[in-house]
């Protein structure tokens, strides 16, 4: 069987997981301007809560929804209880990165203390293998792709055609101006954290589904690639993150044809090249429609 075709299939799955994760990460930055290094551990926590729901017999679809809800709740709590108090005290952006790093360590150790170090797998496993156009994908990998596509279509419709979407874009572009225009920026920020958190939770669950097994730090390990995809497309720009996720996801799986160790290396090679050519990423303006960013 053609290895190139197989790699394309694996690349689609990796890109789908990366799209969910990178867009959620960049949405948080777009509204809050916080580079949240605890994002990967929030993915891990969401995957573990979804695992408990699945183990209780709820089924994988309910588990996916539980993971998304967990991600949304955890993200809103992190924003309200930790980041917002620091920002009100005038904490610098660099110090906020350190705060998020400390939070990541706390979350990871808390998960390890409660869940232990053993690996876990969802009850359904990987599902049945299916042959499609020369690619071999499991039924749950097709679910992952479907969830990613549906989520991105839903996000696009929300950003472009709803009042909350316009308010999100306005707040990201200029919070002070948005506030003076009567937009409740605090509520908008909370909505952005909830939406991005739901994507974070979906990213964690789909990543865990795609792995044979997962442990207490698999999300933090994946965070580096998430950041690479977000930076590739300009941090704060969801459409750029989508493109970055697809490019890096496909390229990493194609590179694995030669050797699996190249999977992560190629992500950062692409990142370095794009930053040399275009230091601000693909889209330099944050959180605006692609047609506006291109002007």
Q: How would you describe what is shown here?
A:
The protein is mainly alpha-helical. The protein has a single domain (3-293), classed as ABC transporter involved in vitamin B12 uptake, BtuC. Helices cover 74% and strands 3% of the residues. It is built from 12 helices and 2 strands; from the N terminus they run H-H-H-H-E-E-H-H-H-H-H-H-H-H. Strands 1-2 form a two-stranded antiparallel ribbon. Strand 1 and strand 2 (135-138) form a beta hairpin. Helix 2 packs antiparallel against helix 3 (60-88) and helix 9 packs across helix 10. It is globular. The termini are far apart.
Named CATH architecture: Orthogonal Bundle
Biggest β-sheet: count, sense, barrel? 2 strands, antiparallel
Integer tally of domains: 1
Distance between the termini: 45 Å
Write down the Rg.
Answer: 19 Å
Shape call: globular
Task: Write the H/E string, N to C.
Answer: HHHHEEHHHHHHHH
Structural class: mainly alpha
On the 0 to 100 scale, the average pLDDT is 85
CATH topology: ABC transporter involved in vitamin B12 uptake, BtuC
What is the CATH class designation? Answer: Mainly Alpha
Helix content: over 70%
Q: Given the structure, what is the number of helices?
A: 12
Identify low-pLDDT runs. 286-295
Main sheet: strand order = 1-2
Tally of strands? 2
Q: How large is the share of residues in beta strands?
A: under 5%
């Amino acid at each position: 069987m053609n290895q190139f075709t197989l790699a394309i299939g694996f690349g689609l799955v990796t890109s789908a997981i990366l799209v969910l994760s990178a867009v959620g990460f960049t949405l948080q930055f777009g509204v809050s301007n916080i580079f949240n290094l605890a994002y990967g551990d929030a993915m891990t926590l969401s995957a573990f809560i979804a695992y408990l729901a699945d183990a209780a017999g709820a089924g994988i679809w309910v588990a996916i929804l539980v993971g998304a809800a967990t991600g949304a709740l955890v993200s809103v709590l992190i924003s309200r209880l930790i980041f917002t108090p620091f920002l009100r005290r005038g904490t610098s952006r660099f110090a906020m990165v350190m705060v998020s790093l400390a939070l990541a360590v706390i979350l990871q150790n808390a998960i390890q203390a409660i869940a232990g170090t053993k690996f876990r797998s969802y009850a359904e496993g990987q599902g049945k293998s299916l042959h499609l156009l020369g690619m071999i994908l499991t039924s749950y990998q097709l679910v992952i792709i479907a969830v990613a596509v549906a989520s991105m279509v839903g996000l696009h419709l929300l950003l472009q055609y709803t009042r909350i979407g316009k308010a999100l874009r306005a707040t990201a572009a200029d919070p002070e101006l948005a506030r003076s225009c009567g937009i409740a920026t605090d509520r908008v920020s909370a909505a952005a954290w909830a939406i991005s958190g739901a994507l974070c939770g979906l990213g964690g669950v789909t990543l865990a589904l795609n792995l044979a097994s997962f442990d207490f730090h698999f999300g933090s390990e994946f965070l580096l690639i998430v950041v690479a995809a977000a930076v590739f497309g300009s941090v704060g720009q969801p459409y750029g993150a989508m493109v970055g996720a697809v490019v890096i996801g496909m390229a990493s799986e194609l590179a694995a044809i030669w050797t699996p160790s190249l999977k992560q290396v190629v992500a950062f090679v692409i990142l370095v090249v794009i930053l040399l050519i275009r230091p601000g990423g693909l889209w330099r303006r944050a959180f605006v429609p692609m047609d506006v960013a291109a002007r």
